Amino acid sequence: MPTLFSPTRQECMKRILYLLVFVMILQLADAQFSKTLFDTYDVYKFNGISSKRMKHAELMTHLEALKQSLGTLVTIKQIGSSAEGRSINLLTLGSGKTKIFLWSQMHGDEPTATMALLDILNYIALHKNSAEVKKILSETTLLMIPMLNPDGAERFQRRTSQGIDMNRDALRLQTPEARILKATRDTYNPEIGFNLHDQDPRYTVGENGTVAVISLLAPAFNVERSDNAVRLRAKKIASELTLVLNQFVKGHIAKYDDTFEPRAFGDNIQKWGTSTVLIESGGWKDDPEKMFIRKLNCVGLLSVFYSIATSAYEQTGTQPYENLPMNTKNLYDIIVEKVTLKFSDNRPSIVVDVAINKEEVKDSTGTYWKGRVVDLGDLSVFTAHEKINGEGKILDANDFELGDILKVDDVRKLLK
Ligand SMILES: [Zn+2]
Hints:
This protein is α/β, with parallel strands linked by helices. The chain has 2 domains: 16-328, Aminopeptidase; 331-414, Urease, subunit C, domain 1 (Roll). Helix content is 35%, strand content 24%. The chain is built from 11 helices and 15 strands. The chain has helices at residues 9-39, 41-44, 56-70, 112-126, 131-139, 150-155, 176-188, 229-249, 265-271, 291-310, 319-322, and strands at 74-81, 87-93, 98-104, 140-145, 192-198, 204-205, 214-217, 253-255, 275-281, 327-328, 331-342, 350-363, 366-377, 383-389, 394-396. Strands 1-2-4-3-5-9-7-8 form an 8-stranded mixed beta sheet, sandwiched between helices. Helix 3 (56-70) runs parallel beside helix 4 and helix 5 (131-139) crosses helix 10. Residues 107, 110, 197 line the site of zinc ion.
């Protein structure tokens, strides 16, 4: 006899169906939110960032401006100083039970996510009365440290001013910057963390040769790379992020190697109980300033905050993340294909592919993009942002050297 507490089989099926429809509606709403964030980005992005080489003083000016527009929605608190005395600040927004901790630029030359965090703050300021922002701020507490390594940012270098890779200092905690990160995590014990980095812009996705615009990792907490509840939640969040980004850059998202690194922060923060996702901003054709990748970070993170607020990500499972192809390295910026390399002495001419990567070179007058010859020979297994047909053309071996910077601003000028 069915009662209120023991529903009939038919009633059970009905309830499951309702639940499925409810989940589908949530997922559709999520997709719509992401699409709107992507389509309207130019309206709400934070204007005024000079370049990806933004330094600490500029960041502080921007945070001050955002504090004015966010009002009581944000508190900004100095939680310590870098080795050279620059302030490191924690921003807190929202009052929800799920704490989401984000830290950017522990490597000083990896600024993409710092710019995206400013976009996110500006979005919240402009849409504080929207249903999505209200939901995010009532269900979650956002804890952000933008630019954890301001001394490195000052020099646009990976390491701290004391020459330490902070991401290998999670155990010894010798650097003041690493101690600040650890202390903040321990103070708040957040459920969820985002470890925000940039990777080599020439990483590719699996074997298909397309550039990896974003690579994701739910870091391992032990050598065996086991799963526990903490890491599984990180994988679900990484899956949710994958589905969001697939709407815009499908085929350009890779999975970062999950070999356990006992000294790294991501791995340890996972071990200490915060479900952590590493976001590595990679490369994109004609985007050396990383402005498109900054947009993807902003859209991806805001979308995932909302999924966490509605708990929709819990239904996503781990497969979208698990199925991502691995990060690989099969890409050069330019390949000149099948050009004839001619020598001025008696050595015979040979047909080669020439790979050139663009890099930033600094001198007393500024920073410039220059081409460096990085490989020579049969490069048919590699892809490139740009392939130049060299068939029938001659390259004089005296005009360039493997490993050297090109003397001309365009390699085409060397082809005869
Ligand atoms: Zn990094």
